[in-house]
Specification:
The chain has helices at residues 2-71, 79-103, 107-121, 129-151. It is mainly α and 154 residues long. Helix 1 runs antiparallel to helix 4 (129-151) and helix 3 (107-121) runs antiparallel to helix 4. The model has no long low-confidence stretch (mean pLDDT 93).
Length: 154
Amino acid sequence: METIIASAIAVLGTLLGSGLTLAFQQHTTDKGHQFTRREKLRQERLDAYSAYAGALINYRRCLVHLWFCEHEQPPPENPDAVRIRAYDLRSNAQEALFRVQMLTDDETLAQTAETVLTDITALSKSGTGTDLDQRRVTTRDDVSRLVKASKHHL
């Protein structure tokens, strides 16, 4: 009888040990998957925020050049060609904005990103050189603030 009890205890101990091992392994695996998922999202956000900031800067630079092409005589470049380039860069910026909006959980950050694009688009509507200079400083600072805010969401 003692052998049967000892054998039963040994079998139960083995089963309990196997069950605990399985539970720990599943927990470790789940944590690894969660970490991988969080890291992948962080990397995608980093790529999206960086691409958007770069698209904004390129679009802003093109609009400033367009303003000079439209207001200087003789224009440094054909304004129509620069305008077409600006449209393409705006499309790139909008695509990057959509990606940012899809990846961020913070509605304030998504709205700020959209506002910065709107403010940059208004650059070409500057009436005077002084107005353009003021908007250039404002939009440059806006992009910098957006980048700093984005860092907190990585």
